[in-house]
Amino acid sequence: MAAETLTAVRSIVRQSQDIVATRTYRPPCDVCVECDVRKQAVCAALDDSELGALQAIMTSTKLETHRTLVDQGQPRNRVYTLTSGMLRLYTMLPDGRRQITAFLLPGDYLGLGDEDVHDQTAEAVVDCSLCGFTVGEMEKLMDRYPRLRQRLHQMTRIALRQARDSQMILGRLAPVEKVASFLLVLSARAAEHGGALNPVHLPMTRTDIADYLGLTIETVSRSFTKLRVQGLIRLPDAHQVDIVDRRALTAVAGIEAR
Questions:
Q1: Which helix (H) or strand (E) holds 203?
Q2: Where exactly are the structural domains of the chain?
């Protein structure tokens, strides 16, 4: 299991190696061609001359911190592209506990795996901006532009890979391994979405991290402290982590003694 998890983490990190961290973006804008997630989102499948068709069916949504976008079990009438902020996806377990299954970053698409209803609740971790589309209109647009459907299939495959990697992390026994893996994966995902590998920004709370990793808040805090004491990370504040020794952190994620 340790070798499989290390391979998964390394795979994500390698995919971010070719990302140019110095690229610059304009602030998010309601005009599709000016949007700073233009090349990461579903609309990357369309040429600039075709974006008008997408913009014609789009509505902009602003979501304040901790507000709910969709509830688990709610009819799937709309799909969304996150253009700024972060969303957490979660399900409620029968005993009342919350299990966070994913954190969505700008450029991610909400509604990939859902069918007639949303199978998870989506809430804003911080203030968010989204582009929304009705399911019917998006289906028609995909018929008009098959490349759009192909792009969604590609994003679905990426989401499935991320879900597999999350399962590997959750299957680990040592909490510090989970936290180390979480930091590496989030760092690599940020790079994939046009950000920098380091520092790692953590808009979510320690409670969110605990509910994602299947740990208690106290255990998450102790794991961060252990990594800091070992000199692998720095903690300038609660929402930022500086990775000091990426190679050693990767080793902890893969071969930490249980």
A1: none
A2: 2-21+172-255, 32-161
Q: Reply yes or no on whether the pLDDT at 17 is more than 70.
A: no
Give the angle 31-36-8 at the CA atoms, nearest 5°: 140
Q: CB of 109 within 8 A of CB of 152?
A: yes
CATH architecture of 32-161: Sandwich (2.60)
pLDDT digits (tens, 9 = 90+) for 93-134: 888 889 999 999 999 999 877 678 898 999 999 999 999 999
Per DSSP, the chain holds a count of helices (H) and strands (E) of: 8, 11
Which two structure tokens, joined as six digits, stand for 213? 């990793």
The domain defined by 2-21+172-255 folds into Arc Repressor Mutant, subunit A (1.10.10)
Task: Calculate the average pLDDT of the chain.
Answer: 84
Could you tell me if 1 and 168 are in contact, meaning their C-beta atoms sit under 8 angstroms apart? yes
Amino acid (one-letter) located at 22: T
CB 54 within 8 A of CB 64: no
pTM over 0.85: no
CA–CA gap between residue 86 and residue 108 (Å, rounded)? 10
Calpha distance 50→184 (Å, rounded): 36
